[in-house]
Structure formats: C-alpha cells, structure tokens
TrEMBL record:
Gene3D superfamilies: HAD superfamily/HAD-like. It comes from Musa acuminata subsp. malaccensis. Its EC number is 3.1.3.12. It comes from the Eukaryota. SUPFAM superfamilies: HAD-like. This is Trehalose 6-phosphate phosphatase.
Length: 375
C-alpha cells in the first residue's frame, strides 16, 4: 500500500515509486558471513581472485566509474551542438514528468508543508559548491553562504557530506548549522544551537574503531597511487576518497588495480563510486540516510508527523537519504543533476545556482507566511 504522506510529484507517482525501489549498483565488499580469521581470509581470497582473474568484474567497475561521473564540460558542449534525436527527447521528458523541477513546483511543495516544521538537509560538493578538478578548491560562493545562513535562521539545517567534518566546517564557516561528515559517520550536535534539544554537545561516531585502519589504508594508498598522474587522495577521517577527476581515462584501470591491491588486505572496508571519486569506508550499516534519522532524533523530530525533512544532494551516496524519506513516507528529496538518472528523489534542480534560488525562495516563503499569520 502506497503511503499517502510522502511528497511526490502529482504525475505518474506509481512510476516514480517503482524506479525508487531499484537501488543503484554499488559493488561493495560483502560483509563477513562468519567471525574470526577464517572468515576474513576467505573474503581476502575471494576479492584477490576477482582482481587478478575476473576481467568482467574489473570491466564492470570501470563502467561504474564512467556512469557515475558527470559529463565533462567539453563533451557536454560538443554534444549540445548535435541535434537530439526524438527518442532521447522522449526519455528526458518522461524523466522530468516523474521528477519535476523543485522550482517549477515550488508552490505545490509549499502547500504540502502547511502546518509542518521543515528541517533542511544539504549535501556540499555539487550542491552548495560546484564540482571542481581540485577537491581542496571546492569553495562555496559568498552568496551561497549567505543563502544557507538565512535558511538556517528559518529552519533547522544540517549539512551531510562525504568530507571530514572539520574540513566541511572550514568550507562553510557557519555556526548556525549541524554538521555530519564522512558520509554521516562523524556527527556533531552542539549545545546552544537554536533548535537543539540536547543539553550538551553530542559527538556521534559509529565507525570510531576503524580510525587506525583508515590511517593505514590512506598511507598505503598514498604510495600506490603516487605514480598515477592526476590521482588525488583525501583523508576524510572515517573514509578515504580517491579522486580520479584529473586522471586520464586510460589510467583508470591501473588506478583501480592499485586501490584493490591495498583493500584486499582490509575486508572490513568497502568501496563505492561517486562523482569522479572512489569512496573507501567501513562496512557498517551507516550512511547519509542513517545520519538524517539520527539528526532528526537529536533535534526531537524523529517521531513527529508534523515534521517535513527536505534533503538536497547530487551524488550516489545521497540516494541513501532519499530512500529514507520515501520509506518514512514524509519528506522531499531533491536531486541536483543536469542529466536524467535513476534516483530515489522526487524532484530535481539542475545546478548549485538553482539550489541557491530554491533556498532563497524558501526563506521568502517563510517570511511571507509569518507576515500573513499562516504559521
């Protein structure tokens, strides 16, 4: 039975839900089936054989790296000069019917929020800041920072990112927010923040026992990937990001093999693809969706039917949060993407500039609602 409280587009809701039910392929390390050294040895042997002998398996990973990466600007520009065939137009139009623009449907969305407390969740890279070649230069604009600050003044607002929490704060520089770094494995709920129900600062780190392992893997990968031009590592405390945005595609296979040569010794870590990045993180049942639920609980909103979470994100890891909103039956998932792709989100925005426009419209709607006495 379909939950009638979930906020989805009016048109063809059955198609949207059906698409959401099929999760993206992540190719993770499988969790151990049993305990002890024998189980770990079995996993190491299995994945060693996959790397050394499984050509089709490796090719599947390479294909995943391609499909999870955004189209390069030059490729997109050349593609724009080529007439779009009718089939592509129809597919694009059908996708937009199932996932309409959050800006074009803004008034409809706001009607659904009547009498509810909006709680905002935002990804960082590709959502608040543009995707850039150098991950250390992914700065948000002053205008975007001001928009996020205004939103946080109107609604409880959290940023949930793959970045480590300290680096995330260095980028954003706003104390009014809640921060969840390392894909939600490093969460801080601070005392004294406007909406906080806790009496003291809460640090939640469900993967803390993996810290020594992550450090070892980062050190080993630094040596293995150093000879590969353009490869860049980022230690995000509870996970390691292997950026291949600046790596020539002909070297992707070499990069992948070097990553697996390290990871075959660490069966308790898994790898998932992102936008021109391979994310290495612990095998635990925790992701951005889990972080969303934890933050709602910490803010005192977990069981309230009068709360409407809004999550905006652009990457594969954000799909876990979109799925949680669908499973809860209440919430708005907004994918940031210029191209149609399978998603658990119900709406879309094309780029960070549209995210900023949406946030500013949300602030203006809140202001007018207060003036009109609607809240």
């Amino acid at each position: 039975m379909t939950n009638q409280n979930v906020v989805v587009p009016e048109a063809t809701p059955a198609i949207t839900v059906a698409a959401a039910a099929k999760p993206p392929v992540l190719f993770p390390y499988p969790p151990p089936r049993g305990g002890g050294a024998s189980a770990a040895a079995a996993i190491r042997k299995k994945h060693l054989s996959q790397v050394e002998l499984g050509e089709s398996w490796t090719n599947a990973w390479l294909e995943s790296m391609k499909t999870s990466s955004p189209i390069h600007a030059k490729v997109a520009a050349s593609a724009a000069a080529v007439p779009i065939i009718e089939r592509e137009q129809n597919e694009h139009s059908a996708w937009i019917v199932r996932h309409p623009s959050a800006l074009s449907k803004f008034e409809q969305l706001m009607k659904a929020t009547k009498g509810k407390q909006i709680v905002m969740f935002l990804d960082y890279d590709g959502t608040l800041s543009p995707i850039v070649d150098d991950p250390d230069s992914a700065f948000m604009s002053d205008a975007m920072r001001a928009a996020v600050k205004e939103v946080a003044g109107c609604f409880p607002t959290a940023i949930v990112s793959g970045r480590c929490r300290s680096k995330l704060f260095d980028f954003v520089k706003l104390t009014e927010l809640y921060y969840a770094g390392s894909h939600g494995m490093d969460i801080e709920v601070r005392k004294g923040t406007k909406y906080t129900k806790k009496k003291k600062t809460v640090l939640f780190q469900p993967a803390s026992e993996f810290l020594p392992m992550i450090k070892k893997v980062h050190k080993a990968l630094s040596k293995k990937t150093k000879p590969i031009p353009g490869a860049k590592l980022e230690n995000n405390k509870f996970c390691v990001s292997v950026h291949f945005r600046c790596v020539d595609e002909k070297n992707w296979r070499v990069l992948l093999e070097q990553v697996w040569l390290v990871l075959k010794e660490y069966p308790m870590l898994r790898i998932t693809p992102g936008r021109k990045v391979l994310e290495i993180r612990p095998i635990i049942k925790w992701d951005k969706g889990s972080a969303l639920q934890f933050l709602l609980d910490s803010l005192g909103f977990a069981d309230s039917k009068n709360v409407l979470p809004v999550y905006i994100g652009d990457d594969l890891t954000d799909e876990d949060a979109f799925k949680v909103l669908r499973d809860r039956g209440r919430g708005i998932g907004i994918l940031v993407s210029e191209f149609p792709k399978e998603t658990n989100a119900s709406y879309f925005l094309r780029r960070p500039s549209e995210v900023m426009e949406f946030l500013l419209r949300l602030v203006e709607w809140k202001r007018l609602s207060l003036e009109d006495g609607l809240e």
